[in-house]
Amino acid sequence: MKRVWLSSGAGRAWIVVVVASALTGWHGWGVTVTPERPFFWIMAIADLVVAAVAARLAVRWPGYAMFGDDAVVLGRERVRYDSITAVRTGRVSAKGFWLAFWLPLSLLGGVVVALRRADAFERQVVELDTPDDRLRMRWKDVDSHGAFLDAVRTARPDLEPASGLDGPDYARDCTPRLSVGGGFLAVGLVVWLFFAGVLGIQLLDRSTVDGPYSVDATSYAIRSVTERLTGNPDSHNPDLPGVPVDLSVEPCARTNGALLGRSPDVVDLRLRLLSRDVPEPVADALEDELRKHAGMAPGDYRDRLDIADSAVRINIPEVATLYIDIRTGCVGDEGEARLREDLLALAAALGVER
Question: Can you give the pTM of this predicted structure?
Answer without folding.
Answer: 0.72
